[in-house]
Each structure stands twice: as C-alpha cells, then as structure tokens.
Amino acid sequence: MAKINAHYLKLEAGYLFPEIARRTREFQAKNPDAKLMRLGIGNTTEPLTPAIVAGLHAGVDKLADVKTYTGYGDEQGFVELREALRTRYAGYGAELAADEIFVSDGAKPDSANIQSIFGVDNVVAVQDPAYPVYVDSNVIGGRTGKGEKGTYPGLVYMRCDESNGFFPDIPKQKVDIIYLCSPNNPTGAVATHEQLRGFVEYALKHKAVIIFDSAYAAYISDPTLPRSIFEIEGAKKCCIELNSFSKEAGFTGVRLGWTIVPKACVCEDGAEGELNRLWLRRQTTMFNGASNIVQYGGLAALSEAGQKECQALVAYYMVNARAIREGLQAIGLECFGGVNAPYVWLKTPGGLTSWAFFDKLLTECHVVGTPGSGFGPGGEGYFRLSSFGHHEDVRKAVESIKTRLKL
Ligand SMILES: *Cc1c(COP(=O)(O)O)cnc(C)c1O
Description:
- The protein is of the alpha/beta class.
- It has 2 domains: 6-47 and 306-404, Alpha-Beta Complex (Aspartate Aminotransferase, domain 1); 52-303, 3-Layer(aba) Sandwich (Aspartate Aminotransferase, domain 2).
- The protein contains 12 helices and 13 strands.
- The strands form 3 sheets. Strands 2-8-7-6-5-3-4 form a 7-stranded mixed β-sheet, sandwiched between helices.
- A hairpin with a 5-residue loop joins β9 (335-337) and β10.
- The protein binds pyridoxal-5'-phosphate.
- The site of pyridoxal-5'-phosphate (PLP) has 14 residues, from α4 and α7.
C-alpha cells in the first residue's frame, strides 16, 4: 500500500496569498467600480532589457543550428557562466572555485532543496518574520512538529523587530542550521558586516551552517553594506549562499539562479568537501541543469552592458520604493526598509493587526498589500508593500494612501 509523506500534513494551509485573493475578490464584487491597486506581490513587472534579450535570442539561434546545437549540458551550469559569477565574487573579496558554484533554475527551489543534504535531527533556526520557503521545506523534511497558529514546534524562531533593527540576535541555545536573508524579504532590512560577523563566529564555534539568501543583493546601493556573506572572514567554512537573476535581471519567469557550496564548508560529521559533494549528488540526481537558452541570457546579464541595464532596472524599482516610503512617512506612518531593498515594512497604525490593516487599506484606499503576520508570528502588527510595479501605478497607489487612509 502506498503511503503519503505525512510531514506534508504538518503544514498549515497555504493561507496568505489565497486569503488575500479571497478578500480582494469579495471587495471587488461589492464595489465593481473600485480600481484596485496592487502593492502586494514580490513579482517583477518591467520587460527584459536589450542586451539580455539579445543573449536569449542568440541562445535560441545556437540551438537552431546543427553546428552549435547542444543538448544536456554540465549539470553545474555553463563553465563561462560560473566563471563570470566567480569574477563577481572575486570583486567582493571572495575567492571561489568554479566547482563551488551550482547554476540552477532559481533560488526558491534551491532554498527549498538545500535542507535535503542535512540530517533530519538538525535544529533549524529561521528569522521571524521570514520568507516562508525556509520553514515549509524543513517541515516537509521532517524537522518539525505540526504547525499551529503560524509556528512549528522544533523550529527556533529568531525574532526580528524594531528592538534589533529587524536583524536577529545570536541564538542563545545551540542550533545547527541558520537561515538568513539579506536584504530581507519581507522587512527590507539589510545586515551589516558586523551583524553577519556575529553569526559567522557563532557558526564556526558551534559547527553550524548558515544558509544565506542574497536574492536582493543587487538592491544594495550603500557601498558599506555586504552583498555576499563571503565578504565575512571565515564564512567559507560555515556558509552556503543562494542568489538568483530573478530580481536583479527580471528573470522571475525566465528562471535562473545559483548556489555556492564552498568545499571548505564543513559540518559536525562531514569533512571538507562533503557538503559540496552532497549538493552535487543531489543536483545531478534530481535536477538536469538550467535551460541552456536561459544560461545564455544569464551570461548576457553578467556582461558589462547587461550589468548596466540591470542597475537601471533596479534603480527603476527603487524610485517606487522611495515614493512608497516617503508617501507613508508624509502621513505619519512608521516604516522601515525600502532603502537598500525593494520592500517597505510598515508598522500598522493604532496597533491594528496585520489583517485589520489589510482590510482598511483595501476598503479606504483600494490598495492591496501583504499582511506581515503571513511571514510568521513576528510579522504581526506589520505590513509589507512591494516596489515591483510600473511607476504610474505605484504613484497612484501612494497618492490614494496619502489622501484616503483615515488615521
Ligand atoms: C524572490 C526571492 C527569491 C528568488 O527566487 P527565484 O526562485 O530565484 O525566482 C529567493 N529568495 C527570496 C527571499 C525571494 O524573495
């Protein structure tokens, strides 16, 4: 008799986005003339840029010609692409080898799959609030009890709030695997070198491994802030980093990312090179490499012309971030993030719950956002607004909040 993976039953229902959709639909049905404005979803809206489009087209042309056709490629990704990424990291002061870089179809799948190379008895720590994939993948991996009211027994929740600048304090207990995301989704907070150094020191001391998600690194404009955890001394011994072309180059629908597993990265029962070998084994067994067309697009994104265009794309969204932040501040709302990250994290006024504020923003301003409580208990009382959108749409939404929100 076949049996299901019962760990899936421990997951709470995917509540956040379906519930946003339900409430939005209900409001629209009752108010058919209301024009809804969406600042809710972390999805890119601007088209691919010319150098990248040319790279993708050239990739298609290569496959269309018998002389340049390729089928399955290196599962770790094009060597040229990994070399280009290696050069980027060298610019951060991190010397990596090409076989420490694994090209993939995105940082979300990698962040979900990476837990499979670790034993089931590891204690996992996550930021609270956090990108939900870190939690859910570890629930499926069997490292937690059944979820209740947004928390899972067995996980260590590292509170991120105003008192610590939305970056967690070093855990007081011994934990084995630590997920960190900077620039952060949902809070928009960016860790400093000193903050990351604290975690790296903890990980080295306890033989813990940090899984560092830097999907929004391209949104950092402050040159003093780290774009990679490998800027921190000793990080190669205890860190894995995930990143992606999704937010940097608008590849959310194109799909291309990478994960770095340094050979020096060790854990309690695995010598140097073991984690790297296990991730290679996992990827070669369960994944057959990223699309070769898309990898040509990725190479173009990393070219000089491509990087200029990516910077302009990021700057476009950051104009929105600024408009949202300044608009909220102008009416006295307290908000965080939105400076080196595309998310603005606002404190709900008058102590409203995240969902009460969602309803208020929807009914009074016709703006759809994301309740902070959907990212973990630490998000209660906060609300996420996203800068991904066309300027004109974001401008209208901000104007509506400024003029119609009753405070
Ligand atoms: C958008 C996002 C990613 C990127 O996921 P892809 O699968 O590469 O599109 C990764 N981590 C976080 C926190 C994100 O918000």
